[in-house]
Amino acid sequence: MKQTANLFVKQRSQTTTLKQPKEITCYSRNREEEYLPKDDCNLHYYYFPDSYLDNNVDLSGGAAKFKDFQKNFKDRCSLKGLLASLQQYEMNKNTKIKADIITFRGIIRKLISAAFDSEQFNHVDLRVLVFDGQIFIKEIPQDEPELVGKAKLNAYSGYKFETLATIPQPLPFVSRELLEKRPKKIVTTGDEYVSVVKTGISNCRLVLGAEVDCIFDFKESSKTNNIYHYAELKCTQQICTAQQARGFDKKIFRTWLQCFLVGIPRIIYGFRDDNMVLKSVEEFSTEEIPILLKDDPAWANACLDAIKWYGALTQWLLDTIPRNDDKKCYKLVFENNHLRLSEFEESDQEYDGIVNGDVIISKEFREWRTQLKSQKDK
Question: Which residues pair with 125 in a beta bridge?
Fold first, then answer.
């Protein structure tokens, strides 16, 4: 493997022109690791009246029965669902989507966060492939250490809060029995709803797949852009000290970045006490987060700085990676204070699976793009 290029985290773009995110399609994934294009069966709706806080909800309740189906997936980071959705979208339009980079929102978030929180996000391990004139980026799954004790309960509380705060259908279609049983519902992972969003910065066009926690109010028809109705759910320790306030600023910056990238307008935080009891729920507007952070010197300019870094790293990828050669693939990692892009040699053991196999691009998507290209060439 030969080194190709480095991008140091202090570099910034002077251009902060952003394209308005637009939802173009969606898909659901279930706990059997099946992908369902243009299917919103796993989209949930927010419902958590203030009166529920009077019940002293225990966010550790049911932790012993927690079922993490996702950890047993064959490929937790697969692009299969995203590509299947794009294929269906392109088939309907009979044309290739105009994009320079196709990946998940979480990958771009990690790449941006590396410039601000290297300790937390130093496990950037990505594979990059040029295919049909576009750059596809996939994450390599990490073997995460098994959480224990309080750390395990803290992680569980987020899943529990999401289970308590959402329902599978709009309220008029949900029975009272289902609502009342939510506190005792077994918490699981694996099912998710993903919005596919077209966005961009400067002259770089991106298509990002982004998991969506819920609809805040109502879902419009499938032909409209539902981004404005989505909400991000989070759960964290309640803020009682100045140190906890500074820690929350760091967390809400990351959450802002996560929502900003695809245009999700609302963030809802549940705050728990030391005994894992839910004490309050607060809603934040994504566009107001940069203003809220102005009071913290450490994060006052972080949002604008993140946009400038976002522009720099996407432009770096476009300038560094030639898009006229489908036989090139790369490894992208974060080391110390820079991103490092290295080209795979043909003799590398990963090369064939990435370039010719289905490590990144599925067989179905390859065949579709080949068919589409032959139609255009006639």
Answer: 333
